[in-house]
Amino acid sequence: MITFEVIEANGAIREVQANEGETLLQATLNAGIDGFAAECGGCCVCATCHCYIDDEDLDKMSAPASDEAQMLDFTATERRPSSRLACQIKLSSEHIGIKVHLPERQY
Ligand code: FES
After folding, report:
1. Among 8, 11, 30, 9, residue whose Cα is nearest residue 19
2. Number of helices followed by number of strands (H, E) in the chain
3. β-strands 99-101, 2-7: how paired?
4. 105 falls within a domain
5. Residue 42 falls within a domain, yes or no?
6. Is 84 helix (H, G, I), strand (E, B) or coil?
7. How far apart are CA 83 and CA 50, in angstroms?
8. What is the CATH number of the domain that holds 77?
């Protein structure tokens, strides 16, 4: 079991539990947390599952693949070095305890 925190745009902190191999997007949606539109259903072609990985957790993340890196140019809110697409992050034990910040909007 992997536990991580989602910090909503309003500052609310939610704890999420996920199984290894689930995506960050799936786990967050399964927890009933709003904040991702995920229009393409996780196919890396919409950029509406944008999130920011906490700066302190960036070293736990592998670099985005080229298709994710390209799609990050189309996020509705500012792209930062910590920007990621939640559908492209497969959770593993390395991600235990990470903090994920949701942007104000996805459009
Ligand atoms: S759900 Fe569309 S890019 Fe992630």
Report:
1. 30
2. 2, 5
3. parallel
4. no
5. yes
6. strand
7. 7
8. 3.10.20.30
- 98-107 per-position pLDDT tens digit: 999 999 999 9
3-state secondary structure of 85: strand
Contact 80, 31 (CB under 8 A): no
What residues in the chain have per-residue pLDDT under 70? Answer: none
Among 85, 89, 102, 106, which is best to mutate for testing ligand 1, by the most ligand atoms less than 8 A from CB?
85
Q: Please tell me if the CB atom of residue 89 comes closer than 6 angstroms to any atom of ligand 1.
A: no
Question: Residue 16 is part of which domain span?
Answer: 2-99
96, two tokens:
């235990």
**CA–centroid distance, residue 11 to ligand 1 (Å):** 23
